[in-house]
Write a structure and sequence with these properties.
Blueprint (H helix, E strand, L loop, with lengths): L1 H9 L1 H20 L1 H29 L1 H28 L4 H4 L2 H8 E11 L8 E3 L12 E3 L4 E8 L4 E5 L7 E5 L5 E5 L7 E8 L9 E4 L11 E10 L5 E8 L8 E7 L2 H8 L2
Antiparallel strand pairs: 1-2, 1-12, 2-5, 3-4, 3-12, 4-5, 6-7, 6-9, 7-8, 8-11, 9-10, 10-11
Helix pairs in contact: 2-3
Length: about 280
Amino acid sequence: MRNLLNFLIKYNYWFLFLLLEVTSFVLLFRFNHYQQSVFFTSANGAAGKVYEWSGAVTSYFHLKSVNEDLLDRNMLLEQRVAQLEKYLLDQGADSIKLNSLDHMAAGDYRIFKANVIKNSLMMADNYITLDAGEEAGIRPDMGVVDANGVVGIVYKTSAHYSLVLPLLNSKSSISCKIVGSDYFGYLKWEGGDSRFAYLKDLPRHAEFNLGDTVVTSGYSAVFPAGVMVGTVDDMQDSHDGLSYLLKIKLATDFGKVSNVRVIARSGQEEQKKLEDI
């Protein structure tokens, strides 16, 4: 205690100086509007910079959740566009019909989130492994998509994992059509470049142009209509000359597939059982 008193007595001038400085600043900024505005403007600028840096760091660590939200929204938008096109063609621009799109989309399928934990590109029969399985509600023959388009179809499942048959597999065959046309064919990968596959059995009288969008046809129990597949990159006649063989540039970049969604269509099991003759 004595040492503390000696310290205060020894440096009393400094303490008095600091007290007077603080008092003068308080009086200056409290009763002088100009100085007050300058102080708060500077303080707000400094605080703004701190908040900006903090926001940038926070945004970086939330990129994964943002990407997942974008993937969900993209899928919903694709479904709404597909439903809208169908209703405009079949029913005309009927506002009552169009207002029911959200309800129909929600009842037509369920969506499960999953992440890719293993992937291959260079084999003839590539496979993708997901970190979700039967306990999450995933079953074989469900469709798999990412933010860009179709990824593949669930092939096998265990309690916590799923094996996906991607488009880049010789056994894969997806029913597709060109947007604006009801003619459909089957998408097959011929090996080699992971960016391209081929749409086969498209009738010779079907009309299309290079660059046209290719989507799922909806003529299966796996994918709903209108899910993005790719664009027409080139064309040629089939080997028998009875149909077109279209080279399709795939929308999905299989070298970067990470977050995916698994689609379970309502009535899928019943339809598949009926068609398995």
